[in-house]
Amino acid sequence: MPLNLSAAHSSRISKRPPHKTPLLRRSASSSFTDFFQRKPIQRSKSKINIPDDDDDDDDFFGGRLDDAGMVKSLASDLSLRDLAQTIQHVSSHMFDAVPENGGFNSTRIAETHNLRRSLPPTVTIPHVHALTPSPTKTEREIAELTKAGTIRRFVTPGRGTGGSSVGESLILSKDVQSLLREATELNQELADKFLACLQAKPMALSISPNPFSATEITALMRAGFLTSSVQGLNSANVFADPNSGRCGTLISISTISQAASGSMAAVGGEGAIYGAGGRGGIRRSSSQFEKPSEHQSLETFGEGVELRLSLPGTGAYLKLLTAARSHLVSLIMKSRFREMPISLLRERWDGGISADDPAARAKKYRGEFTGILPSRTRKWKQFYGLSFDWTLAECLGAGLVEVFETGSVGQAVRIP
C-alpha cells in the first residue's frame, strides 16, 4: 500500500449530502440546528421597489386604525358658555408661547411678536363650528348676537365657498372699536364717525360712500377698514364707453393717452390705485389732498357703488390660515391610509423638537442628540408658532379632516 494514499483519493468517501431519512440523522445539540440555514440575498431597491428613507409614506401601524365613533366637537374648555367667550378664547389661543431656549435671536423674536400683533382678533365661522356640538344652534346664536351688536361679521369674497371658506369671520364689536382707536391713519373725529356708522348698521357687510368724503374714504382704505366692491358693476355698465372711466377705474383712456410716456400721469397719477379702491401705489400725506366736499364721494366712486367692510391685517391672516391648513393636510397624506393618531400628528406639526424634561436636559449636557431646536422647524419659521389645536380645529370645521376615536391609541385624524 503506497504511503501517499489518503482518504481524499478513496472512492468509498464522497462529499454527497447526508441521507434525507430522519432515522439516519445524528442527534442535534440544538433544536435550531436541524433547520436549513441560508444567507439572505442582497437585492437592489430597483428590483423589489423598496421605498427610500426620504419617502413620504409613513405607516407605523401596518393597517387601518379602529373606528370607535366620530368626534363632533373639539371643545375641551367647559367654561365656555356662549359664542362671545368662544371667539375670545380662540383668538387668544392662536399661537404658542415663544420658548426661552428655542434658538431664537432678538430679531426673530421681534418679527414673531410684530406679526402676531398685526393680525386681527377674528375667528372663522368653520372654526366656531368645530368647537360647538350643534351647527344649527351656533348659526342661530351668530344671527342673534350680530343683530344685537355684540359681534360683527366680515366677509372677504373669493376665499372659497361652503365649509372650506376662509372669507367669513367673526369678531367682537369691542375689538373693532379698539382697532379704530389704535389706527394711526385715522383721527379721532373720523374714527368716531365710522364707528357710529357701524353701530347704526350692525348686520351690514358693506356701506355706501355717501356719509364720507373722498379724503375720509381714502384714509379708511389706507387703514384697512374699507375695500372696494364690485357690486356697482352690472350688466348695464359692463359695455360702457371706455372714456367714461366709471367701471372699476377712475381714469379715462383719453386722459392717459395724452400724457407723456414714462410720467406719473401716464399711469393714472399719484394715488390712482387708492382712488380705485386698491391698497398699492404711492402713499400721500393728508396735506397733499385737496379738501373735497361731501358730494364729491359720489362723483368719485360712482352711483350705486358700495364699499366693503374689512379689518387691518386680513390679508396676512388669511394667507397664514390657508398655508397652515395645507401643511396639516399634507402631514396626514404621508400615511398610507391617510390617517394618523393625534399624538403622532402633533409631534409632526411641532417638528420633532427636543423635549423640556430632566431626561432631555441631561442628554443635552452629555452632548447627546435630543431633537432639533424649535427655531429650525417650519412651525416657527413659516407659521410663527401657530398652535396645533387651533389649526386642527380649522381643518375639522372646514371639512378637510375627520376626528374619530380608536379605543387603543386615543383620538385619530383622517382625510375623508
From TrEMBL:
Superkingdom of the organism of origin: Eukaryota
Segments for region (Disordered): 1-29
GO biological process, one term: positive regulation of Ras protein signal transduction
A Pfam match: Stk19
Alphabetized InterPro entries for the sequence: STK19-like
Biased composition (Basic residues): 12-23
Similarity comment: Belongs to the STK19 family.
PANTHER family for this protein: SERINE/THREONINE-PROTEIN KINASE 19, SERINE_THREONINE-PROTEIN KINASE 19
Protein name: Serine-threonine protein kinase 19-domain-containing protein
Organism: Alectoria fallacina
Organismal lineage: Eukaryota, Fungi, Dikarya, Ascomycota, Pezizomycotina
